[in-house]
Write a structure and sequence with these properties.
With 283 residues, this protein is α/β, with parallel strands linked by helices. It contains 7 helices and 15 strands. The strands form 3 sheets. A 7-stranded mixed beta sheet has the order 10-9-8-7-11-12-15, with helices on both faces. Bound molecules: flavin-adenine dinucleotide and FE2/S2 (inorganic) cluster.
């Protein structure tokens, strides 16, 4: 399927559909998880890696990745960092409040090319929210993939998203988890690794022609993580990145999200590295 087909699968290109917040879960001092369902009862119809445009009257609109597996129907999750006007207003909302949602939009993770492969799921900071959609999908369809390694880095123990799920993934035989934080302070109750996420890669053992790495995180993380993966022999056509750009329309009309000739909202946000590594300011 090409990128235009993902867009046209969405019936809600321009008009938001009302969605009710079912639950709001505290994740960190600056991030909350919103458990949301469409008021008309229809499923969102997303795939892991896609995003929606969230709107609130008077506050505008912002792209937010879907943080839950499409297999878990009935409701979907949005992990939201308080960054500005719309996300600040969302952080004041509670169960029963209504959001507008357009989408789902964008090119998802290519599950057909991940099928049968060993996966390195590498995320940093808020990147664990979109990655959670793929991790949950792996939990829901365990026979579709080979060995799955989850690598996650956060600034501090308190900044880690989905702490209960991280503990469950660490305890699960399905996943090999390597977790790290940049810094710890005296009062932190934490016994894991301390250091940058790049330090988690050299000890990994994987077969490059049977492995795909998926990276979602802050811009500074990509180059360093990709360099470590390449040192281990992983080629660009086996590395997937999910990129963020300033977006307005989300559907390839306004041109705010361009990376040279590509529209991040429509050709991405998920790209194979060999598609974008030679484009200016892509990473
Ligand atoms: C495809 C995609 C998926 C995203 N998924 C998530 C998600 O799951 N959870 C989440 O919390 N955020 C996500 N974001 C980022 C989110 O859309 C921005 O933080 C957005 O600006 C918040 O809107 P606001 O009105 O609260 O902030 P604004 O008031 O618009 O802006 C706050 C500040 O952030 C800057 N900014 C705006 N957009 C971006 C951007 N894309 N990257 C970096 N800086 C930006 C602005 O210039 C300003 O300085 C995603 C962005 C994209 C493009
Ligand atoms: S956000 Fe408008 S073209 Fe991509």
């Amino acid at each position: 399927m090409n990128s235009a087909e993902y867009i046209h699968k969405s019936k809600f290109l321009y008009q938001p559909v009302d969605c009710e917040i079912i639950d709001v879960i505290y994740l960190t001092p600056s991030e909350k998880l919103f458990h949301v369902r469409r008021m008309d009862g229809a499923p969102l119809g997303h795939l892991p890696g896609q995003f929606v445009q969230v709107s609130l009257l008077g506050w505008g609109e912002a792209p937010i990745s879907v943080a839950s597996s499409p297999i878990r129907e009935g409701a979907f999750d949005l992990g939201v960092r308080r960054a500005g006007s719309l996300t600040g207003a969302m952080h004041q909302m509670k169960a029963g409040d209504i959001l507008g949602i357009r989408g789902p939009f964008g090119r998802p993770f290519d599950l057909s090319r991940l099928f049968g492969q060993d996966l390195l799921l590498i995320s940093g900071g808020c990147g664990l929210a979109p990655m959670r959609s793929l991790i949950q999908y792996c939990e829901d369809c365990p026979s579709e993939f080979g060995q799955i390694s989850i690598l996650y880095g956060a600034k501090s123990p308190a900044d880690r998203l989905f702490k209960d799920e991280l503990a469950a993934w660490e305890a699960s035989a399905r996943f090999a988890c390597s977790l790290t934080v940049d810094n710890i302070s005296g009062g932190d109750c934490y016994s894991g690794s301390v250091g940058l996420i790049t330090a988690l890669i050299p000890p990994l053992t994987f077969v490059p022609d049977k492995t795909v790495a998926v990276i979602v995180g802050p811009p500074a993380m990509y180059r360093a993580v990709i360099a470590e993966l390449k040192k281990k022999g992983l080629p660009s056509d086996r590395i997937v990145v999910s990129l963020e750009r300033q977006m307005r329309c989300g559907v390839g009309k306004c041109g705010h999200c361009t990376i040279e000739h590509l529209y991040c909202c429509q050709d991405g946000p998920v790209f194979w590295l060999d598609e974008i590594e030679n484009l200016r300011r892509a990473l």
